[in-house]
Amino acid sequence: xxxxxxxxxVPLDRVFDxxxxxxxxxxxxxxxxxxxxxxxKVGVVLALTDHSDVAEERIxxxxxxARNLPVLPGPTLDLLRFCxxxxxHPLGATVANALPTALRRPDSxxxxxxxxxxxxxxTSAPGRVEPSLRAFAQHALIxxxxxxxxxxxxxxxxxxxxxxxxxxxxxWIERCAAIDAEPTPPLLDTAQPQPQPQPxxxxxxxxxxxxxxxxxxxxxxxxxxxxLHGVTGSGxxxxxxxxxxxxLARGQQALLLVPEINLTPQLEAALEQRFGRxxxxxxxxxxxxxxxxxxxxxxxxxxxxxxxxxxxxxxxxLPRLGLVIVDEEHDSSYKQQDxxxxxxxxxxxxxxxxxxxxxxxxxxxxSLESFAAARSGRYALLELPTRAASRPPQIRTITTHGVKLRxxxxxxxxxxxxxxxxxxxxxxxxINRRGFAPTLFCHECGWVAxxxxxxxxxxxxxxxxxxxxxxxxxxxxxxxxxxxxxxQDLRALGEGTQRIERALQARFPSARISRVDRDTTxxxxxxxxxxxxxxxxxxxxxxxxxxxxxxHDFPRLTTVGVLGGDLGLLAADFRAEExxxxxxxxxAGRAGRAGLPGHVLIQTAFPDHPLYRAVVAQDYAGFAIAQxxxxxxxxxxxxxxxxxxxxxxxxxxxxxxxxxxxxxxxAPIDPALTLYxxxxxxxxxxxxxxxxxxxxxxxxxxxxxxxLDVWLPTLRSNRVRWSIDVDPLEM
Length: 731
Ligand code: ADP
Ligand code: ZN
Ligand code: ZN
What we know:
Helix 5 (207-217) runs parallel beside helix 6 (236-249) and helix 15 (576-588) runs parallel beside helix 16. Mean pLDDT is 91; it is low at 181-192. The relative contact order is 0.08. The chain starts with a strand and ends in a 5-residue tail after the last strand. Strand 23 (513-516), helix 13 and strand 24 (541-544) form a beta-alpha-beta unit. The chain is 29% helix and 23% strand. It folds into 6 domains: 3-75 and 93-111, GIY-YIG endonuclease, CATH 3.40.1440; 115-177; 207-384, P-loop containing nucleotide triphosphate hydrolases (Rossmann fold, 3-Layer(aba) Sandwich); 394-437 and 494-630, P-loop containing nucleotide triphosphate hydrolases (Rossmann fold, 3-Layer(aba) Sandwich), CATH 3.40.50.300; 438-493, no CATH class; 641-726, CATH 3.30.70.600. The chain has a 7-stranded parallel sheet, sandwiched between helices. Strands 16-26-25-17-24-23 form a 6-stranded parallel sheet, with helices on both faces. The protein is built from 19 helices and 31 strands. It has 731 residues and is of the alpha/beta class. The longest helix is centred in the C-terminal third of the chain and has 15 residues, at 620-634. The site of one zinc ion has 8 residues, from loops. One zinc ion is lined by residues 451, 453-454, 456, 469, 471-472, 474.
């Protein structure tokens, strides 16, 4: 007997055995459709075995092996197993992350021809028994087959399926492949179209770019993790392009990850121009399901040489992978915040190791985790210390202390915007809050408009005068008077992008102002249109959130004003400064990238804060080293390892009862571990559900995982939804 051991996307931490007599070793990694309960599921074959712990008569046969599709190669399965173990997420649910959604449906035609039935060819098989007159289902099925020729087994109701089995035995009908409307994809195409020869790039590399490229090239064919610390505008993109070119020249594939879907169009354009359309696929959540499958197949079959995408692309099985690049490696968008809570940057490093290829982590503000690894020698540190085509921007703080702000804007910032307009250049006003104002406030009694379903305030949106919750989506009309004291003079307190846009339009009536936030970029092509307008010089002032802060290269943008930066300092968690520093340097880095001098003005009430001093000095290393010292002195990552147990339930009492019990269960397992007290989540109630968390900390990674392996299986609750977050970024 041959059994296949299959990973299925179910919330159970186990694999499932099925009978499959014609399975061979080359079916490991194969997609398979299997019966599960009363339905069917798609899974992946992880292993073959000739004995099972399940009683033989209880093992069901596989429905079909998707032999028309390439298998997931060993290193991809290794990566998935690693994520399963490291993030303590069920194996089957982890494996599902590697499959495009179009392949997760058991009736997907892409999984190959579906089994079907048709009437037997020979009409007078000897000994064939007529169905009895009362076997209605059997007669009905025969009648349907006379009409339609074939019927897919999956389209039959249970009674008809039972009838089919009887008729099959009796020789009335036979198995065949369903003729589906959609053609099934062709078999693995072994032809690997080479990227079209492109005109040689004309840019002459700077000497530091050259050095970086040489260092990485020297490690082709082996695993090495390079941390590329390159200041904003230092030409990291060109380095990536040359490295990709070198990988392609070796006949290999390159995987390039970016943190945000908004960064993919600009990257796509650069890659396409250099390597041609045929060589490239981009993968991100904005690609429609069918198209995503086609692109995935081109990557998996080795037809596309360059795979660029957001975090989900890290799981794309690439048969000829030779190089991995993670751009803006510090970005928290690489961390998935639900289900499999993986960090694609860390997964990329594991993948590179499993494939014995180099990986490049690039950033102007590397994460402290990566920087520490580089300082210890575990990663190779490569630097691009100066801009490639311009001077560094000049960064100044503008104190708001004792200064009369107009709609949140300091006079010095207004003046700088006016001067930039005069020069015909572009400005960016950065404020990381969308909406008109973050609160609606009664100055008589102190009431602020709360969300009825969350422990959060409602944001005032000017459009239609609505109050909206940014956590649960709740929306209501603006109250005319204060619900507690009746005061009719409610005020919008603080500034959001809408308010700044309106204030600037009033101050500069003839300026062309564009607001860029999640509200203005909902339409699919909105961001791409805007990028074109900025490039074509049709915009004078941009008002935007962090969507605009990252990665973009707008040559005429010379002035950046930063509002509300102090908020980051007030955040309670230990990563607040690291995040603020990165965001400020990133947004400052948009200024003056193409020769025109760049000016950055940061409004703050605390100009002498060490964070702002480091930002003004643009001193990443100084900041990072000081932060690392602080982290190790006060016992925080990366000098320690953390996991966060998150719980959510209908009542606060349920959440804390669960977390208290969890803490009690944990205590005896490993006394060397630190267990914090259960605490409410940063926003304790979202959409009517209460949230709490329990932080576990350990000096060693192995000890932490050993503990989780014992602890997590003991956690049980019917009322509480819980999950474990390893290396949590948000607390
Ligand atoms: P980063 O990603 O490091 O912030 P980019 O890769 O966007 O920087 O490069 C910034 C600018 O410098 C781009 O306009 C790019 O065309 C230009 N550039 C990069 N390398 C060179 C070079 N060797 N010579 C001249 N210009 C360069
Ligand atoms: Zn009031
Ligand atoms: Zn809400």
